[in-house]
Amino acid sequence: MFLKVLAIFLICVIPTLSLTFTIEPKRKTCFYEQLEASTNAHVDFQVVKGGDLMVSFRITDPIGRNTYTKIQFSTGTYNFRTNTEGIYSFCFDNSRSSFHQKEVTFNFESHKAGELKKKVEKSDFANYTDKKGEISGKQAAIELAGFLELLGEKVTEVHTLQTYLKAREKANRDTTESTNSRILWWSLFSTLLIVVGSITQIYYLKSIFMKRRSRI
């Protein structure tokens, strides 16, 4: 019995979509998702690499209305509940950048409210009654469904946080590597400049002494 309930929970854990992609300069990239009405959804994104780390983000419902818009930001988080069934678009716009492509991490999660509760109530567990008749399977199923939904949300929150931390780690690592590379090239350029300057001074002083000697 427990294994059946656990299987229902694993099937109904909030599905999560995680993507990392690049957007070329002056381009827009969109993703589309079919959602039912009364679906709870969560989106978050972060620009981890490229130029000023800024993009614009827009969510459009099946009717064409803008559900959410964020212009020129490096991070964004938004929770919403759908009112209309259909295809929702999630678009990232890099048209304001003329030269830099952007690398973006994007997470999307959705679940229909009460879906897990309905599945648990339809399971064999809802018809279970102990030998003494003291435990109602239906009541226990409702309580279990609430607990599993809460557990699923917490698991999803942990996954979202892990994804965010990985993106931040990658962004910080890229920044560190870029800084180290610039320091290395600047050090090499400074060293070369010093060597060239020293050689120039030596030849200049040598030419002065040679001219004086020729006059004598």
UniProtKB/TrEMBL annotation:
One of its GO terms (cellular component) is endomembrane system. Pfam families: EMP24_GP25L (PF01105). InterPro entries: Emp24-like, GOLD_dom, GOLD_dom_sf. It comes from the Eukaryota. It is found in: Endomembrane system; Membrane. Coiled coil: none annotated. The chain crosses the membrane at residues 183-205. Keywords: Membrane, Signal, Transmembrane, Transmembrane helix. The keyword Transmembrane helix applies. Residues 1-18 form the signal peptide. Its main location: membrane. Residues 28-110 form the GOLD domain. SUPFAM superfamilies: Supernatant protein factor (SPF), C-terminal domain. It is a single-pass membrane protein; Single-pass type I membrane protein. Belongs to the EMP24/GP25L family. This is Transmembrane emp24 domain-containing protein.
